[in-house]
Each structure stands twice: as C-alpha cells, then as structure tokens.
Design brief:
This protein has 95 residues and is an alpha+beta fold. It contains four helices and two strands, in the order ααααββ. Helix content is 42%, strand content 11%. The longest helix has 12 residues. The radius of gyration is 27 Å and the shape is elongated.
Length: 95
C-alpha cells in the first residue's frame, strides 16, 4: 500500500484538525484498506489504557475499595453505616 499519508496528517485527522482536503485523502486511503494507517489512527483516537485504570472509580460506585500491588488486586470490603430508622411522629400535620 502506498503511504503518501504522513504520520502528522494522520494525527491531525484523528484529533479533527486536518483540512477538508486532507480528510478526504486520508478517508480514501483508509477505505482502500491500509491496515497500517488505520492502526495509527486508532491509536491516536483511542490511546492505550492501563488494565486497572477504572478500578478506583468503579470501586467508589460499587462501594468497594481495591488495593493493588504488582499485578494482583485484593478487594477490601468496608462496612457501610446503616440508615437511621425513621421514628413515627405523633400529632403530625400530615393525615
């Protein structure tokens, strides 16, 4: 496959700063099936994310804390305080 497309052009294409003409050339090139350039665009658009990048965030959502050491993780559960039980109020205005 001809590679008249520069790496700089592919980076501009990936971030949306390429000119209209440059976009058309790159799209036509990619449609011809250049796997090398497609991979370069993919890497520019979607950078490599570490395997454990989402664990702290998801742990906060699920209420779990994670401890990572080297390549393994231990899941440490913590006790959640129980919600107070509502006490019925006599003589309230609500009927």
């Amino acid at each position: 496959m001809d590679h008249q497309i520069s790496d700089e052009s592919l980076k501009r294409f990936a971030v949306g700063s390429a000119s209209r003409q440059e976009n058309r050339l790159i799209v036509a090139h990619l449609l011809r099936g250049c796997a090398v350039c497609a991979q370069k665009v993919r890497e520019s658009v979607r950078p490599e994310v570490p395997e454990d990048a989402y664990e702290p965030v998801l742990g906060r959502v699920t209420g779990e804390r994670t401890y990572r050491q080297d390549s393994w993780a231990k899941l440490l559960h913590f006790e959640r305080p129980q919600a107070p039980v509502p006490v019925p109020v006599r003589g309230s205005l609500a009927r």
